[in-house]
Amino acid sequence: MADGRRHSVDLPITRTLIALRRVRSLRDPSTNSMSKFPALLENATWETNSTNEISIQFAKVSKEGRLNHNGLSGWKNLCLDEHSEDQVDKFDSQYDMGKPELIFRDSLGGVKSLDTPLRTENVEGDNCERETNGTTLLSEEYCGGRRNKVLDLVCATPLSNQLEDRDSTNGPITGSPLGESIDQSVPRQKPRSKNQVKSYSGVGDILSRAGSPCLSVSDALSSHSTSLFANEAAEFMVQNDRGCGISCCWTKTPRLRDSNPYSDAEGNPLLSRDVAGKRSWKHITNETPRSLSQKFRPKSFDELVGQNVVVRSLLGAISKGRITSLYLFHGPRGTGKTSASRIFAAALNCLSHEYKPCGVCRECAAFFSGRSRDVKEVDSMRINGAKRIGSLIKNASMPPFSSRFKVFIVDECHLLNEETWGTVLNSLENLSQNVVFVMVTPELDMLPRSAVTRCQKYHFTKIKDADIAGRLRNICVEEDLDFDQVALDFIAAKSSGSLRDAEIMLDQLSLLGRRITLSLAHELIGVVSDDELFDLLDLALSSDTSSTVIRARELMGSRIDPMRLVSQMANLIMDVLAGKCQDNSSEVRRKFSRKHASEGDVQRLSYALKILSESEKQLRMSKNQSTWLTVALLQLSSLEASPMDVNDSKSSMRNGHDRDGDFSSTPSTGESLKHLALRSCEDSKLERLQVQGDCKVTLDSIWKRASELCNSNSLRSFLRKQGKLSSLHFNKGVAVAELEFHHPNYASKAEKSWKFIASSLQTVLGCNVEIRINLVLCAPVSKCGKLRRLSFSLFGCSRRTHYKSHPPVEGGSDSDYSDHISEKPMIREKAISACPSDCGSQAPHNCYHRVEVGRALRNSEGNVLSIGPTSSHRSLPDDASKTPGHGFPSSKAGESNRQVTIFSSQEAEDQPNCFPKRLRLPKKSRSSDAMKVVRIDNHQENKLALSIPGKESIENMHHCQ
Ligand SMILES: Nc1ncnc2c1ncn2[C@@H]1O[C@H](COP(=O)(O)OP(=O)(O)OP(=O)(O)O)[C@@H](O)[C@H]1O
Ligand SMILES: [Zn+2]
Predict the structure, then answer these.
(1) Cα–Cα–Cα angle for 84, 86, 90, nearest 5°?
(2) Where does this protein have compositionally biased stretches of type Polar residues (predicted)?
């Protein structure tokens, strides 16, 4: 028969496969040497073809045995020549081999055949079809890349009892290199035949499989049901390496199958040299990895980007021979920890004396092809448990097979429990010098202290944007991708120092099959361009309120979520503050930087940064993210150019004191002035922003903006001087603004202009507004002379309008205003909450009583359910309620008020236009009944009649219309 022709042989596929597996572990179990089957071994050659199929060839001149395993697409092909078969027979008798099972799975996941004989046909020239029990397998290698039918043959070689266990428990088979599990609906494998392995060679077989091109260690481990480990964990690791012994640490990359790993570099070098004589890994990455990140996983220290200190240090350790037994690689995700641990492991065993994996020597070849027997990657979750870790330690105590070091890479080691850590740490001293554990984690804080202190720690830093961009550029060039450098810079900036993240983004963009441009990147990532943000920031810093609102809404409405916008804008500001504006920056950026270059601008920008960072915290908890972000943006324009420290709570307090008295003794705002807090109440419908600390700055700026929008000069200056926005909260998307005035006349005046105020607030907040006007009086307490606050809720009006951004026109009347805003008042309220108690004191300012709106208990609709006196002072000067300007004609001198509440929100709905939430009761109606039962009997246009049991009281209410 001519060379290259192949004989057709009928061969039970299971035997074939098991034989081939054994070929990969041709060690004599007694001597652990490779000498037992030299002929077969010498003839065995691993190959990777262009489609990443893996094949073992038994290179006899005219015949060949070949196992094709498409490691990625799940396609495998198998054929053996007679020569191999002979060897297999020998093998079987020698080792009392069992009969493996094969599952053919077509592309739809159906099982084609199980435990079927395989018939290989002569292959000559293009004739590359081989039949396997009716199933056609095509080898691309022989078909010049033709692949008509994809079959998935899952190598579920049952070399172990563990597999029996698995079968019995119906556990999923995840033997495919992709870790995909076979659908449970797939018919189970046949019961094992007598040919099956009697007793598996221990865990080694699992790890063998794991180490085989088919499986990684973790794949193998995960491919078994828990019962497997529950029963046999002890043996699992002990017998590791007793099978074919090929265990793989290169689990996450496609295995490299280009050559016989045990061949000499000269004979079959893994690394080619390029023209310049530089080593190139190209041909060993001649595969079809699933992602760019896989494909470009660094394989030498040189390729590790941005971790120079770590690299230098590790190289130093290797060159000086100062290898310790426990290493800890920690740092953010996607920065190269796992890659580095593998490179380190390879470097430790590399025979080249170059202290870095040469990629050429036998050890490197074995390692990178995933067949190193001395480097193992361990799944942290799977070694928890005394038995399992015990087995692993036992395994570690055995000498290495062929390498200098036995290396265990424990990824995600923060998942190890304390007990496991304890066992590892305790055994370190007893283990040989040649055992190295490399623990890898992004979560240093989760490790036990005792472990951290015992390790040599290597911190992997976030990778610099420039380094990431450079790497992306190289990838693009190598992959022949069309790109704009700005797009790569942008991706780098968005990947937060994680090269993997950047590579993933690039990968996605490359799939679009278009030039990788900035706008494409924006679209993919869901951000807006920097230019657009600079525009928005510019507007926000100017006083153009409506444009700011409109622009912000546009951006948030269509393309970016508020959280992202905040962080993107904060980054931009930081760039500007850092002077990051190169020549190649966009015109918009340069213009912005020029415009905001003065000292004052820089201060404003840094203050803006603080506001944005504060608002980011609020947004996290808010359901009204867009509104709050708009509010935050509007604050930027009111920033003074003068230095202003938002953290300087003292300054806030001082401001507050000037106007409002002693904050520290006024519970409504007197809780320590810390920050703006947006709270979600127990009732999820209600969100509340309460006045606390720095939020005063926020509220002040909102108020300032709103009052600026009132075009009447007198009203504007009145509001700015005499009014204050004391709290803001949201109820079902309506902003409830509590306003404070400090004189009844002012409150009364504000009440008259409520439409303007509401309108301005609406413009500023960008949503419907309900305003509540409160009168706050400061009354000195005689003993200490301190000012105390008296708060009266006078007026409330909720307006649900179709929001328009236009403020009322100058000099416009209410009717003008109405033209501008289509108004649909829903609830009109006018109420007073004043001191209910009769303190008996005749001196008007000797005592106080405060009714605090902020402490009102609200129902799910946000209506006040009850409101109570909050001060220990139970007395209020009677004349507090008869102060002129209250607008409550029925308030009689000497009459104390008691606050009452309508409990049913249904009533509010029934009477949407005129609904008093809080009303006064006559002094004598103090019974709890009177407090509870209040009912609207009747309401007329200007009057509300309230019926209170045992007492009749009519309270006149002004309609707000
Ligand atoms: N420093 C780096 N140099 C080159 N490539 C890197 C680097 N860091 C990450 N990568 C790329 O990201 C991929 C994942 O890296 P790796 O698994 O080593 O990161 P990691 O830090 O271990 O991440 P994790 O903590 O999530 O496991 C690699 O395949 C590689 O393509
Ligand atoms: Zn080497």
Answers:
(1) 115
(2) 862-874
Domain 272-459: give its CATH architecture: 3-Layer(aba) Sandwich (3.40)
DSSP code at position 710: -
Q: How far is the CA of 171 from the centre of ligand 2 (A)?
A: 39
Q: Which helix (H) or strand (E) holds 436?
A: strand 435-441
Are 490 and 528 in contact by the 8 Å Cβ rule? The answer is no
With CA atoms as reference, report the closest residue to 739 among 647, 846, 660, 837. 660
Q: Which has the higher per-residue pLDDT, 264 or 523?
A: 523
Q: What is the 3-state secondary structure (H, E, C) of 869-930?
A: ECCCCCCECHHHCCCCCCCCCCCCCCCCCEEEECCCHHHHHHCCCCCCCEEEECCCCCCHHH
Site residues for ligand 1, CB cut-off 6 Å: 293-294, 296-298, 303-307, 333-339, 442, 460, 463, 499-500, 503
What is the distance, to the nearest Å, from the Cα of residue 3 to the centroid of all Cα atoms in its chain?
Answer: 58
Average pLDDT, the chain: 58
Q: Where are the domains of the chain?
A: 9-183+196-238, 272-459, 465-525, 562-637, 649-956
Q: Is the pLDDT of residue 731 over 50?
A: yes
Query: What pLDDT band is residue 831 in, cutting at 50, 70 and 90?
Result: very low
User: What letter would DSSP give residue 124?
Assistant: B
pLDDT band for 258, please (50, 70, 90 cuts): very low
Q: What is the complex's ipTM, to 2 decimals?
A: 0.99
State the maximum Cα–Cα separation within the chain, in Å, rounded to a whole number: 125
CA distance to 340, 362, 639, per residue, from 315 (Å): 11, 20, 53
Residue 543 binned pLDDT confidence (cut-offs 50, 70, 90): confident
| Cβ-count burial 661-676 (b if 16+ within 10 Å, e if not) | bbbeebebbbeebebb
Neighbours of 52 (CB within 10 A): 23
Nearest protein Cα to ligand 1, atom 13:
500
The domain defined by 465-525 carries CATH number 1.10.8.60: yes
Q: How far is the CA of 861 from the centre of ligand 2 (A)?
A: 72
**Integer Cα distance of 245 and 410 in angstroms:** 19
Using an 8 Å Cβ cutoff, are 896 and 838 in contact? yes
Residues in the chain: 961
**Rounded to whole angstroms, how far apart are CA atoms 346 and 355?**
9
Q: In this structure, are residues 102 and 116 in contact, taking their beta carbons and an 8 Å threshold?
A: yes
Going 258 to 261 to 265 to 271, the CA torsion angle's sign is: positive
Q: DSSP secondary-structure letter at 483? A: B
pLDDT in tens, 659-668: 322 222 222 2
Q: Angle at the Cα of 556 (from 554 to 557), degrees rounded to 5?
A: 65
Ligand sitting nearest the alpha carbon of 354: 2
Distance CA 811, CA 804 (A): 19
Residue 580 has pLDDT above 80, yes or no: no
pTM over the 0.80 mark: no
Strands 857-858, 823-830: pairing is unpaired
> In this structure, which residue's CA is closest to atom 16 in ligand 1?
336
Report yes or no: 121 and 131 within 8 Å, Cβ to Cβ.
yes
Orientation of helix 625-637 relative to helix 754-765, angle to 10°: 100
Residue 611, burial from CB neighbour count under 10 angstroms (0-12, 13-18, 19+)? buried
Percent of residues, the chain, with pLDDT higher than 70: 43
Instruction: Pick left, alpha or beta for residue 333 (phi over 0 → left; psi -120 to 50 → alpha; otherwise beta).
Output: beta
Distance 255 CA to ligand 2 centre (A): 17
pLDDT of the residue at 287: 52
- Residue located nearest, by CA, to atom 7 of ligand 1: 336
Helix (H) or strand (E) run with residue 823 in it: strand 823-830
- Residue 682's contacts (CB-CB under 8 Å, 6 or more residues apart) are none
Q: How far apart are CA 266 and CA 280, in angstroms?
A: 15
